[in-house]
């Protein structure tokens, strides 16, 4: 094909641009080089974003500061999303709020708290050698270097933060509090915080104070000293009829049922009049321990967890027991009519205490207990629970532990006829104490030779749904194994279960190898399950004489105070720092002092009879706060009256 001839312009020019103006040529050039111009513009914009700071966070922080400009606005700044729901005890109203996750603000003076989730301020600074930051520049005036028992319940809710390097290791004989207080004068902590930093601190302090107040109010309701089963300061002998459920084929009793009976037999203020063993309905077997005294109060003590919180079974059991008591009253010709009337009145005025030592927070409402014609005073029916915290969980993607919130103790009965639920954490079992005495052979635990630096006694590699946090803590202990304590000493750690008999371990029996290992540890690390608090190992570790490091709990057993008789960590990183600090030779005396205080507390405050006396009378009575005094001798029962052939000595296995 021949090329088309060029079209000539009217002026005779053959140039294709001859008819275009300068404006047309400029537009054409711009379009041809548009992509290059756009690229240069984008690069300049990105460069300005990187070099110049944005005003967004500053404006946002300033707005937070201005909303607290007056006391009235400060008091009204908290919304309904700041605290869990509680019921006003007088019944006059109800505070309806949503629960929030745990505020993990800590003191800048406390190296036990490192790398935990906190709200941050744009003006916060951090040491040069650390890759993670969790600090507020404003210190809380409520923080105390030496916590006392009066502020133990609020020690976990200080608003101060501590800046610390993940791999740092204290090397002096100063305590963590003293070391961090010296660092407050460094350049990393500005002396004159900006208004935006103050606004963030005010906001965090307000939220933390409200959560602290809510926690203390709820725990006060759970406290048996304010509302015991038998009020009025009664200190006379109380007769107890224990009800336990035997569910296994071999007739093995739950550990909680065992220490409840042991508590009754060792207390100087409690007397066992009978023990009812429930396996199926029917049959039901009752062992009489002592004859009833018409002048003493009668308490039906039910191991509610062993009964699986089954209200129907409980109703059948109590009806059968009362029927037997009525037969005893009516058929005993040796008693006078006045005595029979006293026993009948005693039955109608009996107290009922359901004790649930399971990990469930479920508050089963048994209408039968309040509708029974035998019960004249509905406040005599009480419930005590080990688990009172719900919503606790561990986010293993972000390594954040959410402590949840405390369940209301005032909603067990919808009509308000029941008294508040009581808090009953697990106790120190006497079988463990006896095992320690067998191993030590008269040597005090504080004088034991301890060859293991750190021990963590649970299943190595436990991948259950409730052990995610425990696995991360185990990794810390395993990683520190054979690391340097100083230039000449390597760390010796022990991780894993220690048992002699696997069958006995499954049944909850104390293992000799476990006792020997735990007595050889300088430090024992304890971690709660992901979704509930409290375990036997906490009390057993304290009784071993080792320094106990435990994760944070909303409902810490009474008397436990961080850095006084126990060490509380809130993350794997803080645990690593604390282990290195307390294993350093310069801090050996401090470690032994805290460990000894923990031993004294658990031996004088948290043994089985202490817990039951606290629930019944409002305080421990027998050998209370006497850690070196031996356990009271068991009071043996008399001949059985209602004993029936059980095809096996269940009672012997029970003991």
UniProtKB/TrEMBL annotation:
<feature type="compositionally biased region" description="Polar residues">
    <location>
        <begin position="194"/>
        <end position="212"/>
    </location>
</feature>
<dbReference type="InterPro" id="IPR055259">
    <property type="entry name" value="YkvP/CgeB_Glyco_trans-like"/>
</dbReference>
<dbReference type="GO" id="GO:0016740">
    <property type="term" value="F:transferase activity"/>
</dbReference>
<feature type="compositionally biased region" description="Basic and acidic residues">
    <location>
        <begin position="117"/>
        <end position="131"/>
    </location>
</feature>
<feature type="region of interest" description="Disordered">
    <location>
        <begin position="68"/>
        <end position="213"/>
    </location>
</feature>
<keyword id="KW-0808">Transferase</keyword>
<feature type="compositionally biased region" description="Low complexity">
    <location>
        <begin position="68"/>
        <end position="80"/>
    </location>
</feature>
<feature type="compositionally biased region" description="Basic and acidic residues">
    <location>
        <begin position="161"/>
        <end position="176"/>
    </location>
</feature>
<protein>
    <submittedName>
        <fullName>Glycosyl transferase group 1 protein</fullName>
    </submittedName>
</protein>
<feature type="compositionally biased region" description="Basic and acidic residues">
    <location>
        <begin position="95"/>
        <end position="109"/>
    </location>
</feature>
<feature type="domain" description="Spore protein YkvP/CgeB glycosyl transferase-like">
    <location>
        <begin position="512"/>
        <end position="615"/>
    </location>
</feature>
<dbReference type="Pfam" id="PF13524">
    <property type="entry name" value="Glyco_trans_1_2"/>
</dbReference>
